[in-house]
Amino acid sequence: MSTSVVVDHEAMQEPLPRPVAAQSPASMVPLLIEDVTVAYHRRPVLWNIDYQAPSGKLIAIVGPNGSGKTTLIKATLDLVPRAAGQVLIFGEPYSQQRHRVGYVPQRTSVDWDFPVSALDVVAMGMYRKIGWLRRVSRKYREAARQSLDRVGMADFADRQINQLSGGQQQRVFLARALAQNADLYFMDEPFAGVDASTERAIVEVLRSLRESGKTVIVVHHDLQTVDEYFDEVVLLNMRLIAAGPTAEVFTPENLRKTYGGKLALLDQLSEKMAQPRSR
Amino acid sequence: MNSLLTPLQTWTLLDTWIVVIGALAAMACALPGCFLLLRKQSLMGDAISHTSLLGVVGAFFVSHWLVEAKVISPTTELSVRHVAMCVGAIVVGVLSAWLTESLQKLGNVESSAALGVVFTSLFALGLLLIRAFADNVHIDLDCVLYGEIVTAPMETVGKSGVPRAVIVNGFVLLINLLLTILLFKELRLSAFDPALATTLGIPAQTMHYGLMGLTAMTLVAAFESVGSILVIAMLIIPPATAYLLTDRLPRMIGLSLLIGAISAALGHVSALTLPPLISRSIGIADVQDASSAGMMAAAAGFLFVLAMLLGPRYGLAVRVWHRLLLKLRIASEDVLGQLYRMEETAPRVIADADSSDVRQRTSWHRYITTHSWKSRIATWLLMRRGWLTGSHSDARLTDIGREAARTLVRSHRLWESFLAKHFLLGEGRFHESAEQVEHFLDPELLAELDHDLDRPGVDPHGRAIPK
Question: What CATH number does residue B151 fall under?
Fold first, then answer.
């Protein structure tokens, strides 16, 4: 498998070697995506993605709307089926590594009128650890409270979740991921629609996660903050445009490729594959 | 009052059993109903109540075939059929949910349309089967789908005198209770965040089908004793009522059980007492009572309306009350602001104290007579609170009142300055916006405004911004 930093479709650049990750054993690689293709109703939305995430880094997935960022995460977590390719988490399929993976879905993916408290939501992150049929004991409630404390939400533990602001709701989701105590995190747009203080709080949590050796992969929209917040960038637009250290990959040239519209040919092909008769 | 309760003097054991059966069925339905409601799939229950006909018909065939084949004796056919009916309902319930989702995905239609297609077609298929085989198999649908709660207590088990319907519904309630308690956190997570549930290894999809199966079983068991309308009502209304009253799931479930039981009791009592009362008042003598099942459903609806009006947090009454309080607060603050500005424009220069005093009194008089009743009530409240002194025709700020007024005027002028700095707005438009916004700026926002504007001394009109 190639270790190139920049997936250059026009072979304009020499692939750069990646020193550490390439030599580490498979079980040390938090996320290895090999030739993954995802299709909805036969229509491919992600084409042949190859990516190897380095350990202990903050990684941004960046790309325009509809470029397949969320789909890539969902395909990794077996939430949508893959048409081809495989994903390895610390060297094993996801189904064997659930306990090492934390997931923060988009805030808008759940019903915030649901009759639960912030603490209840955070405790959900530990349901797997608690086990089937068991109650959420005091020990776990205490752990949930500590997670809330880490995102500055300890005072809101008993609030019903619809009484929280958007930023506070996002922090509750983050606290839930912390409670999962995973080694690899996937976060889908945690910065979407949050206030400045929440953004600072989230960044702080991300950094403390990195300090304790966790790998965090974040779908990110705000191009202004990418180089400030993230060590690595994955540029995505239906295909992998480039991936690697932010300083090297997050260039105007690559961004132009990412945001300069989809490859017309790819789009047409998708269309044809979705409707095989219209040849 | 006496005449209202007269029909209750003939209350018998039969009436008690009717209430017990209704309550048990209502509680059994409320449990899956809570989770359907939270998944926004309440109507799935209605749909399943129709499609389960197919399962029921299937059960008739199976039990009939077993008797024909001499596997079981005709005497045990009834009990075999009941088990088969439950199994058939579960199968069809899961099948309906699965079909609905498949149609939605494959046919690319909206979920409610897919649901409509599935439940009408399966129901029609059930009806067709009945027609086609009615000659061979006697299907007594009346007793299955259109159960009558008033006659349900008549059929008792053995010599115990306990109606069969009590046993059946009690048993289903027990199963549902047990599953709800054991699988509480899994059910909650699958309903709230199916994606997270799946990544944690709790198969949300399977939980969903399980819930549909359980709903179907509960419905079929209850149909026979209380009839389909009551069952659908009890599946949806008590959970919806409980949802209005609390924002914790365990409490919501508990309340929905309670509301189901109360609806049953209230419904039967009203069925006995209300019709004679109404018929007497309009001069018709012969209406003695009404359908108990119908009244139970109506009672549940009545409780829902009560909760909607009087609920502690989302109730209409509370919201109207809060709006009134807000209006009074705004009126009070306007009065304070008005007096503060009057003091500003009519400074108490010692040499001319009298004339400035007179000027202030006249302008206050003009203010209070041109403003609505809210301002008058607000003035009265402010005087009681000690923020104003004097009389209605000549109100003055006290020191503490002046403090509050200063904050308000500060909010007003800071906001005007903010508008002037950041908005492309004609100068004449500042005031109107500030009149609205001034009531909602808390200390934190004020500090932020102050910081943003670099601690301004005067507003865009050149008036001093009080500190």
Answer: 1.10.3470.10
